[in-house]
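Subject: mismatched residue count in predicted assembly?

I count 1079 residues in my input, but I want to confirm that the predicted structure covers every chain. Input:
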Amino acid sequence: MKRRPARNRKETPAQSGLTIISRRRFIRLGCCSAATLSALATMSRFGLMSAFAQSAPGYQALVCVFLFGGNDSNNLIVPLDSRYAQYQQIRGNLALAESSLLPVTTSADVPYGFHPELAEIQQLYNNKVAAVVANVGILVQPTTRDQYTQSSVPLPTSLFSHADQQLQWQSSIANTGQATSGWGGRTADVLQSSAGGSFPIALSAAGNSLFTTGKQTSAAVIVPGAPLGVAGISGSKSALARGAALQQLLSFDSGLQLVQAANAITQSGISIDAALSTATAGAAALQTTFPATDLGAQLHQIAQIIQVRSQLGVTRQIFFVSLGSFDTHSAQLDNQTALFPQVSQAIDAFYNATIEMGVQNQVTTFTASDFNRTFQPNSTNGSDHAWGSHHLVIGGSVKGGDLYGQFPTLELSGPDDALDRGIWLPSTAIDQYGATLASWFGVSAADLGRIFLNLANFPTTDLGFMTS
Amino acid sequence: MPGTLIMRRIFTAATALIVLMAATRAWPQASAPAIASLSPSVLYYGPSTLPIGFTVTGSGFVSGSQIVFNGTALRTSFRSATQLSASLKLTPVPGNVALIVVTNPGGAASAPYEVTLAVNGPKVAYPAAFRFLEQATWGPEGQDLINLQQQGFQPWLTAQQAAKESKFPSPPAGAPKDFAQSTFMYNAINGPDQLRQRVAFALGQIMVISEDKIPLAGMMPYLQLLQDNAFGNYRTLLQAVTLSPSMGRYLDMVDSSKPNAVKGTLPNENYAREFMQLFTIGTVELNQDGTRTLDPQSNTIPLYGESDIQNLARVFTGWTFPPTAGAAAAKKLVNPVNYVGQMVPVEAIHDTDPKTFLGTTLPAGQTAEKDLSQALDVVFNHPNVAPFVSIRLIQHLVTSNPSPAYVKRIAAVFANNGAGKRGDLWAVTKAILTDPEARQGDIAANASATGGHLREPVLYATAMLRALGASVSSTNQLAEKIAIMGQTLLKPPSVFNYYSPFYRIPGGAAAGPEFQLFSTGTALLRADFAAEVLLSKLGAGTTVNATPFVQLAADPGALMDAVNNAFMGGQMPSAMRSTIMTAIAAAGDPATIAYDAGYLTASSGLFQVEQ
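Triage response: the counts match. Full output below for your records.
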């Protein structure tokens, strides 16, 4: 950990590195120096390469934004053609007013509207750097309503359970018992030797996640805004001795599995933080303003890491961020009104930061969530657990301004309803969604099958929403 | 040796260190006093509160020599140049190690001499008592350790059952927004009903509500409900939770209505689903030993489908908030938000059609209360409940990886407490703690490789604070520190708790639920927390006084003995001890010496994981 050693003062425990502010911290509380500010002011936001962006050739990043709880994406994007009437009639008190929806069209000139609180997403869509992928969900193989009802094809396990579906979305494995690694982590496994340095490819700013856990590789987890490294183990002679003892204790083999696990994670944390500390030394603060929200802070952190990708020695990175509270069994309209601005503004700020760094074509952000929600409302102004959901992909390499996949027929007990409450049978599998992203990311066709285990069951492996 | 594994050290004048005393001391001179031995060689704690007399044998004593015990001068009787005596009322000494020094008039002082304190003829050996209290309380501390060693497990447990219950009072007007958290931490550090609190917290991690949705006014009654029912019956607890307005609001059962064809709405499914998945039976069939039953194709067997959920959701219709006293007679069907009391039925919105779930049909025409009670009976009596609840309680109290045999023994007690009663939580709690598998690790060499569990941040905090005898007031701000370590106390992110019971350590060799909060990021923040504890930088309302340990710094061996006793039950491996002693050798002053000993112990994996 880089820190100016306190050579001339006797260090007592009270002073030994416990002034947390003095340790390297990611999200700077103040802005950059005056010199840096004036330099940035002369650059326009679009087009010009930032002097700070040292785009490693072939650098790419994927960013998963996981919406925990099962986002009702029936209200994320709403058809504005004649289907609006069906939407309004069935959704009842959950229906969004037609005039409030933010209008967009598809390449086939079909009109849709985004939720009123997704203004930034609408703009990104209209600027052709955001797209909607419709009705994505976990499947073993393509499944019809009859097949589901009769269980005549293999089905995912525990379909409407939060815990199981979160694991299945993150792993793209349709059986919770086998979901022990994430597709992000398995992608990192495949790319580690070609694109990883000594720093992990996968990184979460939202705690431990299955998505970033590989079979061979494990992710870095950082806490947004937290100081890097361990306090009080460098500087004075006694602090250094303490640090040496700490390291030695971490390397003991006690024969106790849980103790070994704790020690290994701590050692990993120390070396990850040391690498980050070195990499970020001297990096100027990003000019882009991020919203002061939970998701904003996470994406700000991710942007700062992308900023130092060359120093970290990585050419591929896979990130995980998240937001919770989407389990809207009640008060859905109010809850989404509160949550969607956070999603929209944070993703927009992040996209702007990639422009600032000149990597907007190299970073793709995509959403994920446990499941969609019942098209039919419940009696408490909310909806219950469903299945296939609509998602957003954002980035300069996205073929934006369009809707991909097949939008479900909005009919209870209709051909796309698994049951009778408007639980959409996915028309696109997570395997296909993920494979499209991973393929853009540089994963070979052979390796795609190793990462997405049921991919061969589906007719297409590339949904076409990415430029090559 | 009676009840302790502590080695006595004799510290020679040739390696004298600075002693922290009020008066200055000169380096020992040829005529300085010296201590050779103590009689009795071990000082025993009560039960008697009478002072204990002891004799110090050595040399260089004069009339006016004083015995100083842990910095306190005692009234000393001069027997001869080689013998002094004094007496002392013993109160629990942190780490059960003290230093005595003899000081002569004129200032000459002996080198410090390490004294061991212990319980005489304990019913439970010190390491076993320590480990038991790690499982049964928020952290072993001095008097509790003495009591348990003197009484033995069963009398200690009996006393805990009767211990005065800590309170979670309704928030006063103008209560700070962290009132629930500061009350919780105050009770954890100070409350006499330690085991009740641990069990209540475990139950609250099964039947979860969160302050991220439920306001303070709803949190306090729910916390009290868990406390009140922790040693009662699980069936009673299920009903109390189901009718709690806090839970009703959290999982949307409150005001859920029968199907309404006009509005095109159906009952809310949230409570029905999570009630089965998280509070009672889980998603798949279990054997009584907790392993999953498999069908002939080796698949797990799901317990219920969407139809069961929809039917149970209809059972749970027709309940609203308790009426607010004094409110004008409402023309509305449902009551406004009110977290005091139990939910009340509203028959007009209760679904009275028959309901079929889990293979049982409730007939048409029953009241909300009858439907609810019968449904709870059906679920409560499902065989899965016994292993489901047992595993989770074992994981919270003892080990993340119980053997199937252990689970089976506990599930059997859940199924029948010995007097024909199902769901006796007190019997289950006692069985969990006294089971041979729980007690196996009392002898370190017998510890299972996958035994124990990682202390979740709140338990990591309380264990350290209680070991150090910290003073925590009702306005403490400890929850802020606990949040930095990854646990937002009383605000779990969802009904799935702070962490999943299925989470496994990296590599998957063992279950480690609490590891879900232990990442490459939070691991280092936990070490930082240990530092803040030792420096007493925990915000307003919490003070840690490290003086008892700083005083021992004059004799690093004695200090390590104390730290070993206070944090690791006397079972610190010798390699760990010598590593820490090396660091201490580089520390310049007593405060840093004591800090190093505490910090390196508390931040180590061997302390972070309770074995």
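Chain B is about 40% helix and 10% strand. Marking this ticket as 'not a bug'.
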